Amino acid sequence: MTEAAAELADAVGFENITVSALARSFKVKDASLYSHVKNLRDLRERVALLAAEELADRIAAAVAGRSGKEAMVAFANAYRDYALAHPGRYAATQAVQLDPALLARSTVYIRTIELTHAMLRAYRLVEPDLTDAGRLLRSAFHGYINLEANGGFSHSRDVQRSWEQALNGLHLLLENWPSDSSHHAAEEGP
């Protein structure tokens, strides 16, 4: 049922999946689904966890055996490819209305952070720079993908070439990351 809900999310948008819509896709009454799912929130959380696991699996496979720029580009391309191929599922991974307790105990979200940090360690980053760089990458990838998916790039420049240049720029930034360690050391005292 979760897979069917994920497919529905890709077809109609994550925000448009409902228990009723899913029941219609199975040609059954809403009530018959409630033996499998508690409510709409439960259904959406299941889709979000499935999508997060699929995305993490794709990223892990893409970065395996790679480091540095090669890993970052593979990570970014796997992220983008998944988001564009599965827009509803991708939106589910970004859903802010998910239960924070669910996210805190979810191994897939922890795995995603670990994959991101492992890829960034090749750039010799440590905390708090790992978190800052991870947030920058997520923001850059998400923003680019969102604009691309919504037709936000109207210039004649090839969108793929711009993506590649953006990744080149991100790589240069990561190689020359302005470390926050001096600020961190000052907080700790002498």
Automatic annotation (TrEMBL):
InterPro entries, sorted: Homeodomain-like_sf, HTH_TetR, MT1864/Rv1816-like_C, Tet_transcr_reg_TetR-rel_C_sf
Name of the molecule in the record: AcrR family transcriptional regulator
One Pfam family recorded for the sequence: TetR_C_33
Keyword entries, A-Z: DNA-binding, Transcription, Transcription regulation
Originating species: Streptosporangium lutulentum
Domain spans labelled HTH tetR-type: 1-55
Source organism phylogeny: Bacteria, Bacillati, Actinomycetota, Actinomycetes, Streptosporangiales
Extent of the signal sequence: none
PROSITE patterns found in the cross-reference section: HTH_TETR_2
Residue spans binding DNA: 18-37
